[in-house]
Every structure is written in structure tokens, then in C-alpha cells.
Amino acid sequence: IGKEKFHKSQHWGYRNNVAMLVGEDKPGIGGEPLPGQKLKPKYSVFPEGIGSDAPAWVAFDKQVLSFDAYFEEEAPDKNQELYRIRHCKIYYLEDDTIQVIIPQVKNSGISQGTIVRRHRIPLPPPHEDQFYAIDHFNINIEVILYARRYKIIDCDQFTKNFLRKMGVRLNPPAGRPDDPYTKERQKILDSMKPLRPYERIDTLKQFLEHNGHILRFFCVWDDPESMFHDPRELVLRYYLSDDTIDIKEIIPVNSGRDVVPLFLRRDKLPKYAPTGLYQPGTITSRTVLNVFGKLVGNRSRYILDNRKTGAVHQEFYRDSDLKIGAVINVWGRKILLCDCDEFTKEYYRTKYGIEDFTPVSYKAPPPPKPEKTFPPYTGFGSEEDSLCSCMGLLPKPPQKDFKKFMEKDRSGMESNILRFLAKLVTDSPIDKDRKFIISYFLSDDTISVFEHIQRNTGILGGKFLERGRIKKPGQELFKSEPSEYFKAQNLFVGARVCFHGHNFLLVDADEYTFNYMEKHANEFSVADVGVILKKLKDIAEPRSREVRQVFAATDPEHTKVIEYDPFRNLIVSITDGAFSEHEIMTLGRYYSVQDEYEMDLHFLLSVAQEQLKKNSFENFEQLSAVLTYNDREKCGVLPHEMCRTICKSFKLPVADDDLQALLTMFEDDHKQVEYKKFVDGLNWRENQIPAFQTIKVPLKNEDDWSGQPPSLPVKGIKYLPLLDDLFGKEE
Q: Which residues belong to any copy of the DM10 domain (predicted)?
């Protein structure tokens, strides 16, 4: 009583052609809130008239509030630690979105980077219908983001100034706790450092940094004792991991020299070899001193001598001694370094700044091998045939891929022909409605185009393009290189192809084409469900929750099945047009609901009678007499297998599958066949059923495919398995 406003808010609407609830925050009748509804305030912090009129994303553009925080993470699978202290950054951006990032720590072994992507985060229950705002943040407080408790300990200077201008009283900063396991590890590392300054020979670092790095030089040795004084070609390899050298000799063919594995085995190469032999123990890696000497009898105590008093020093070749043009001493043999490979040049260029790598010539260069070039295509005959005339004096016909022809030629029901329905891409109103059937023959990669005959169009249908290989457009005609032709991978639903200046759009394909491409998914990426799912996951994974909600909104009755058209529209909107029509069809076929047709008894009887009539089978009385004779108890029923055996003995011209189905149709509750009704149903003389009168599912013949597109590729699609394969099962 006394109420004057009775207007109602619009709560329902359409989004992407799907009816759904769009006005959750709108009030009820007369502007009053609905029972249990909490209306959000119109202004979050400041009342109307105070502050800038610009929206928040404009007024606070490129302004980020940064908070330092940490959280405790349990480590139940480790004995060394019960929990970890993870330090992170919480960013609050201009549109009330929040992002949480863990700074990168080298060799931490745990996941780092963005742990909460940028979006609006709801408050913890029971206020989950509201989102975090600027007034929920302060220093030395705890915030809960998705059931994880973050302790804010500090913020940067810009954030402090911004919060003070907003009227927020800042708390004093809190201390940053240390991770107990990291602290314990640091203690262990500190305890491993020696207290006494012993000499440390570290060869592991050099090995780890340069393992597999080899400097290669091409050398020559002019052997003075050789009979013909011919130069000996050598390859010197310097191993950076341990400063060793080995040399291998390049022995020419038919040179008469013995083949040996190595000219010099791998070892450190002394500069002034050969030298005299040293006694064992003279050359050591460390030098020790006897502190007591002979003062205390036989007792002795040794310490390391850092000055290496009395040590024998040997000089070995290092990488700094090797360069192009240098002569090195290899145990008395003078070897000249003439050239090096690209890795060696880059190493000396980076480490020593050497830029001059001019090789030393020691033999006459071999005559250049003439390059075999082919003349351009003349235009006569095929390109392959013209190319064969350039291969030799006696031209031979081009060889065809006979193995491919035998594998992909028509065999039984396998046609190995991919057929697509296409239309012209044109602005002409006459040509827009023309329909074409493009057939791709896998045996020889040829293509033929047939135009569908339509009445009263004024266009003569039939053969549009003779069977043959078709070149891809945009190639030069008279050139030496072979042309590129259309392959089977270039044809799929949604593809645009150009055949001799005619642009076609492939809009559909027959069932055999879809099955063949899905069976050979490794050759056709558009029919590979694994590739399509990976591609879709990369696009949709950042917004998995939103995708789940969109699919759930498309199925308001919770049937777990949606039709193909809404499914296609959802995939197109999610991928933003990145998927072709064939990929969407493959996805729909993979997750489609399999149709289970209920077999019609009259349909089976009509098919069986038609077969019996064609084969002039009329021995129904004898068949009935034999069945009655085998019925010893005269109950009118016989076992299923016995009836089948008797029918086979009469050579009943009915397929075995149809016979099994018919016997199953005439079974009673005890799985016994009523043979009298069975024989009466087959008797086409007395109980004739009009042929194919009650067919519910028409038979499909692939050879008679007219190219007409079906109404939908599939009827229903189970979207829950698709979402589970993309984002995992939702708990």
C-alpha cells in the first residue's frame, strides 16, 4: 500500500545468440532489492562530485601500487624442511586488478614468475560476491587470495604517497623472515670453506666450462727425410677442457703410406721436446717441505710449499701459442699451422681480439668443379619431361612413383580419392550459387573439378577441369627450378585455392575424406586431434575458468551436450578466427555423440524379402517343416543357434548380420526364437512387405555422393570431455 513504482528490471538477455541471465545486479520490482540481494555501492571510495570525472583506467593509467609480501608454503615431501618462506610482489593496477609475482631466484628448483595472473580477485567467503579494492591494502596486514594467506610487510615510496593521499593511515613496516632451509644450507656451505690457505688446484671448472670445445687447426709438415719431399697434411686438435693436443694425419688415396689412427696421441705437448727423462717423483703437481728435516731422527712433518722451491717447471703449448702461420715443435718436427675452422676463429676473435685469419697456402688449389645448371623450361611438354632431356644424351621418360601408385590406387571400397564441395569466390551473382566437386587422387597427386548440374541456371554443368596436376599460383613459367604443385595437405574445409585463375572456397567434404584424413592425422595437421587440442590449449588456457563458464552457460539444462552451431560459434569466439573450419569439424566429430539407430523389424524383413525374391527362394514350407521337426517338445520355440544352423543348411540368401538381427527380433523373454513367426515374416509370397517402405535411415553410398552439404557435421557434442582434455578434470 502506498507503492507507486512497479517497473521491472530486465534480467534476461542474449549474449552470442545464447539466452542467459545478464542482470544479476539489477534490483527487483520498483527498484527494491530482491530477497537476499546485496547491491554494490555506486562509488567505491569518494562520493560523487569529489575527484576526477575520468574513469579509473584513464586517471590512473600506468600507475602501479607495489607491495612486498611473503607467504608460507608447506613442503610435505621433504624431510629437511616443513615449510618454505616465499617472497613475492603484489601489484595493484588501475582497473582494480591484482597480480602476484615471485622474483626469479637462480637455481631455486621451484616454480617462479607469475603465480596469480592479472585479474580482479574476489574477497574470501562470506563476501565472495565483492572484489578487492584499494582500501583493503595496507602495510603489516594479511590478505587472503584464493585461500592463500599473504603477509604484506612493506611497499615502495610511490605506493606510500598514493595511500596517504587516499587518506589511508599506514602501519609500520614488518620484518622480512628468513627461509629456515635456505639459512641452514648457507651454514653448511660456510662450514665447508677451509680455514687454512692451502693451495687449491681446480680443474673441474675448466672441464665443465669447455667440455666438448675443441680448437682445430689444419697443418702441414715438410718431411726432410721423405723421398719426394711432399708435404704431409695434418689436423691438430687442441682440447680446451684439459689443454691437451692430438694430431691426425690426412692420408690421400693411393698414396702408398700406412694408415695409422693418430700421428700424435692426446697429451700435453711440451714446447722444448725432446728433453731428457726425469726420475719418478721429480715432476709433481705440488711441492712439500720437511719442517723438521733430520733434527728429530726419523720423525718428519711436511707442509705445502706455495713458492714451489726446487720444482721442475715444464712449458707446454697453450691456446695462446697457436695461431695461423706459427711453427710449433712436435717432438723435433717443425709443423706449420696453415688454417683453422670457424669455431676456432670465433674463439680467438672473442678471447684475444684477433681478426686476421688469412690462411697460409701450401699447395695449388684444385680446379673448380663446374656447376651443373639446367636451362629454363621451354614450354614444350611437361617440365619433368623437358628436364629428362638435359640429364643425358639419350633422353628417358620421367619416372613415376610406382610404389605410391600401387599403395594409393583404388582397391575395393578404398577409393583413395579426397572429394570436397567448393564454390567460387567471386562477386558475380550468377557464379555465387555454382557448386563444384573437387576430387584429389592420392595415387598420382592429380586434381579434377566437376560442376554440379543445376536446373534453370543457364550454366552447363559437368566436367569443369580435366584431371591433372595443378601448379600453385604466383610462380614463374620459364625457370630452371621445378614448379610446386598442389598437395593433399593444401586441401581442407575452409581452404582457399586458385586453379588456373579460378578462386575456390572449400566448404565441405564427403565422409570418406574426413575418415581418411583423421586416419592419417600425421600427414594432415587439420585432422590431428592432438595438434588441434594443443593449439586450442595454448590459446584458451589463460582464461580456462571463463571458457568453462561460457560452455556451461550454453547448456542451461545441464545435459552435458550442446549442438554443433553453438559449439562452432564458441570455438570461433575463443580462438578469434585462428581455427579453420576443418579443424572445428574435426574437434566436433571427435567429441560428438554417437547416433544409435534403432533397427526396424519391418525394414529388416523388407530387405530380407527383397534378397529372397531376387534369388527365387520359395522353400518356406520345407524350412518350416524342418524347424517343427527339431522342436521335440512342440512348444513353438527353438534356440537361436539351432535356427541359424538350419537356415544356413537351406542356403538362405541373407547376409549373416541381417540373419542374426532377424533371429534376435523374434526372440521371446527366454531368448528362444519363435520360428513360425520368423518363417511367416520371410515368406514373401504370402506376407509381402512393400520394399523399403519404412526405412528410417537412408543408406549412404560414397560413390553416389552428390556433394550436397549435410545440415550439420554432427548433431550433439559432449563438451565436458573436451574441457577435461584442455584444462584437466575440475575438482
A: 61-167, 211-352, 414-521
8 Å CB contact between 584 and 569? no
Q: Could you tell me the pLDDT band of residue 340, with boundaries at 50, 70 and 90?
A: very high
Phi, psi of 583 (to 5 degrees): -65, -40
Three-class SS of residue 720?
A: helix
For residues 507 and 543, membership in a common domain is answered with: no
Sequence-distant (≥ 6) Cβ neighbours of residue 222 within 8 angstroms: 229, 231, 232, 334, 336
User: Can you give the residue range of the structural domain that contains 555?
Assistant: 528-592+718-727
CA distances from 369 to 362, 364, 373, 574 (A): 20, 15, 12, 57
Q: How many structural domains are present in the chain? A: 4
pLDDT in tens, 626-675: 999 999 888 889 998 899 899 988 888 888 878 888 888 888 888 889 99
Residue 627 domain-assigned? no
The residues facing 450 across adjacent strands are: 437, 463
Q: What is the pLDDT of residues 608-620, one digit of tens each?
A: 888 888 888 888 9
Within 10 angstroms of residue 536's Cβ, the number of other Cβ atoms is 22
Q: Do residue 421 and residue 547 come from a single domain?
A: no
Backbone angles phi, psi at 72, to 5 degrees: -95, 135
416 plus 464 within the same structural domain: yes
pTM of the model: 0.42
Task: Judge if 443 and 580 occupy the same domain.
Answer: no
170 within a domain of the structure (yes/no): yes
Mean pLDDT within 448-466: 88
* Residue after which a domain boundary falls, among 479, 499, 526: 526
Q: What residues contact residue 49 under an 8 Å CB cut-off, 6+ apart?
A: none
For the segment 280-315, what is each residue's pLDDT rounded down to a tens digit?
878 887 787 777 766 656 667 777 777 777 788 888
Domain stops at, among 478, 497, 526: 526
The alpha carbons of the chain give a radius of gyration, in whole angstroms, of 43
- Determine contact, residues 109/86, Cβ cutoff 8 Å: no
What is the residue whose three cell numbers read 553416389?
A: 704
> Residue ranges of the alpha helices (H) in 279-413?
342-351, 383-388, 402-408
Query: Which candidate, 684, 662, 553, places its Cα nearest to that of 617?
Result: 684
Q: Is the predicted pLDDT of residue 56 greater than 80, yes or no?
A: no
Do 544 and 514 sit in the same domain of this protein?
no
In angstroms, the CA 380 to CA 212 distance is: 56
The dihedrals phi and psi of 363, each to the nearest 5 degrees, come to: -150, 160
Whole-number Å distance between alpha carbons of 271 and 315:
6
Q: CB count, 10 Å around CB of 334?
A: 11
Does residue 572 share a domain with residue 474? no
In a domain, residue 392? The reply is no
Q: How many CB atoms lie within 10 A of CB 436?
A: 22
Question: Rounded to an integer, what distance in angstroms lies between the CA atom of residue 717 and that of residue 589?
Answer: 8
If we measure between CA atoms, which residue out of 337, 201, 212, 338 comes closest to residue 269? 337
Note the helical H segments in 305-419: 342-351, 383-388, 402-408
Mean pLDDT, rounded, of the chain: 84
Q: Report the SS3 class of residue 370.
A: coil
- Do residues 679 and 624 lie in contact, with contact meaning Cβ atoms separated by under 8 Å? yes
Residue type at position 525: S
Asked if 722 and 588 sit in the same domain, the reply is yes
CA–CA separation, 184 and 79 (whole Å): 13
The amino acid at 223: D
CB atoms within 10 A of CB 476: 10
* Dihedral pair phi/psi, residue 164, rounded to 5°: -65, -40
What contacts 274, CB < 8 A, 6 or more positions away?
331, 332
Question: Are residues 217 and 124 located together in one domain of the fold?
Answer: no
Does residue 473 lie in a domain region? yes
Q: Which CATH number covers residue 299? A: 2.30.29.170
- Kindly state the cell numbers that stand for 413: 571400397
Buried b (16+ CB within 10 A) or exposed e, 638-664: bebeebbebbeeeebebeeebbebbbe
